[in-house]
Amino acid sequence: MAQTALFKTPSRKARKLLPIIYQPAGAANEYGELAANLYSGCHHGCVYCYVPAVLRMPKTAFHSNIGTKQNALERLEKSCAKYAGMDRTVFLSFTTDPYQPIMDWASFHTAVIAKLNEHGCTYYIKDDLEKAARQ
Q1: Residue 126 pLDDT
Q2: What is the pTM of this model?
Q3: How far apart are CA 116 and CA 61, in angstroms?
Q4: Residues 6+ apart with CB under 8 A from 38
Q5: How would you classify the pairing of strands 21-22 and 67-68?
């Protein structure tokens, strides 16, 4: 990835890997008690997308560098174990569409859902909220 003066990616070794499931702060908390962002970047390139500004990165970088987060499934396993049995719902995903057109996204997403189910974590997806709003 080309680096710009506005956005520099720390090396993978230098970056601390945060838990995949986290408690959203501020207004984001109205969507769910817990959230998980499993992807970096988003293919869609929506004009109204707020995420690049929040992440302090150029829109072109955000919309062209799409992939799963580093060790996402292993980090999800640890996070699920932490929240298992707490009767809290995980929102998938604040910062991207969880259905990214990347290589083998369907099997990745299926593995994510299986991990959540395995630990008894309930979840919902943005599309679920949109369908509920239309009913």
Answers
A1: 65
A2: 0.72
A3: 30
A4: 20, 68, 69, 72, 76, 92, 93, 98, 108, 112
A5: unpaired
